[in-house]
Amino acid sequence: MSFETSGMTEVFKVNNHELNDPGLTKNLANYFLDKEEKEIKRIAALVRFFQLDSCLSYNLSRYFDDKQAPIQCGHCSVCRGAIAQLEYSQQIPWPSDDMLIANAAALTRHLEGKINKRLTLEAYCRFFSA
Ligand SMILES: [Zn+2]
Questions:
Q1: Do the domain assignments include residue 8?
Q2: Hey, which of 13, 20, 29, 47 has its CA 20 to 30 A from 97?
Q3: Is residue 80 part of a domain?
Q4: How many domains does one find in the chain?
C-alpha cells in the first residue's frame, strides 16, 4: 500500500464581514459551551453504561434497536460476574475564601493592561480549575 499526495492545495479566504459580526464572540462562546455540556453528558452516559448490572451486549443491542440479541451474551464483564465499578477522582479539598480571594486578585493583576474587559465569574472558575 502506498500513499500519494493529490497535489491539491486548499485555499481559504478570510471573510472580514463575518469576522466583524458583533455577535460572533457570543455565538462561538455559546457553541463551545453547548459542545462542552453535550460531551459531559455523553461521558456520563458511557460511565453509566459500563457500570450496568445487566448484560452490556444486550443493552448495546437494544440501543441499536436489535431485538434479536440474547438477554445474556455470556462473554461481557457482567455475564462473567464482574460488574464494572469505575473509580472516581478524589475530591480535592475546597480552598479557603482567603486563598480564593488572593488568587483572584493575582489573576486580575496578571491580566491588568492585557485585556480591556472585566473578568467574568466563568473566567475565574476556569482559571481556578486549571
Ligand atoms: Zn453479557
A1: no
A2: 29
A3: no
A4: 1
Does residue 119 sit within a domain?
yes
Is the pLDDT reported for residue 7 higher than 80? Answer: no
- For residue 39, the CA-to-ligand 1 centroid distance in Å is 26
Q: Report pTM.
A: 0.59
Asked if residue 105 belongs to a domain, the reply is: yes
CA–centroid distance, 71 to ligand 1, in Å, is 7
DSSP codes joined into one string, 43-92: HHHHHHHHT-SS-HHHHHHHHTT-TTS-S--SSSTTTTT-------PPPP
Q: Which protein residues have their CB within 5 A of the ion that is ligand 1? A: 55, 57, 73, 76, 79
